[in-house]
Amino acid sequence: MRFRPAAVARPGTEAELVAALTAAAERGQGVRVIGAGHSFTPLIRTDGLLISLDRLTGVSRVDPATGEVTLWGGTRIRDIAALLAPWGLALPNMGDIDAQSIAGAVSTGTHGTGPAYTGYSGMVTGLRLALPDGRVLDCSATEHPDLFAAARVGLGVLGVIVAVRLRCVPAFTLTCRETTEPIRAVLADFVDRARAADHLEFFWFPGTPRATVKQLTRGPADAPTRPMTRFDRVVNRELLGNVAFGALDAAAASVPRLAPAVRAVASRWMAGAGFSDASHRVYVAPRRVRFHETEYAMPLAAFAEVVPEVERAIVASGQQLTFPLEVRTSAADDTWLGTAAGRETVYVAVHRYHREPFAPLLAAVEPVFAAHAGRPHWGKEHSLTADDLAVRYPRFDDFNRVRHGIDPDGVLLGPYLRELLGV
Question: What are the domain boundaries of the chain?
């Protein structure tokens, strides 16, 4: 995605942010906010003012009694562990990519895995929002509660997130175990295994008979650890998992008949050696091969039907994938536009090498997701319209009502979001 904003602002204080936002509003200029630019969708596209939060980072407040930590909105997730370390705290859950800003991760509903754990938005206990009219509002479950419920997955249209208050937990370790298992066995008992584990997910190359299962087990902060060896990090994770895998993807993109062999090989050696370490070092995995991605959230009860149906749809389409399906779970939350709003959730992510066309693959899998009330990850590719989304989100109209009250002139709406929200 490429676009050319009229101007870029990089405020270093709340006052500078408010001044830039209100000046643009007074000029009748649209405003969008960029965090890490990690999303696949054009959420931040604007021909007006683009505000970067990269200079608004760090901790602004810690409450040791509650474990609540307030972070400036531009703080990258990869930096949070070091910021929390002096207080012996950690994020309760993380995804496997930590490049995002915390404001962006919250705004798009970014998540990890585990039916006992929500995504980042479910950890939020308070938000500080700068509005186009110059006001700065603090919201929580008791202060502007409708705005709070909407803005925890707000897509950047309910004000600029100046700061985020998160409920953190005492620091902990994780032990990672990866196994290669027959896919039939995985499909048969994944939900039960996920409920019994702390964090469980699996990767399945369509058309192959096996999956890589990744299980993370939590332990106390002072538990003995066995960090990843240099050999595993350099050889298995980087040389094989990124360099060699990227070369195989590129080869299959040029010669599609190579794709089945790539899937067969990758499905056998994807599992890495076990290790244990501080939680943030185990959650995150290096992803250096570029790809397209769609990810949909379905009720967890639909797991047994939806995952095999997605695989069958891909195989039947004839599209030659060299990336695996990724299947994760999440606890329900009470946000309005969160993909796990009101229901335990199974996520199914479909990836494809970036040099290959993604539209045919999306067309093959979206009908399966639609049949199971699927909700698309806001930061990943999908084709849904406002009418589709209104059916999938009971509070969709309420979200638009709150958005209009906050920003009646649509200052924070780019063209893509006007269409997406039906404004």
Answer: 172-376
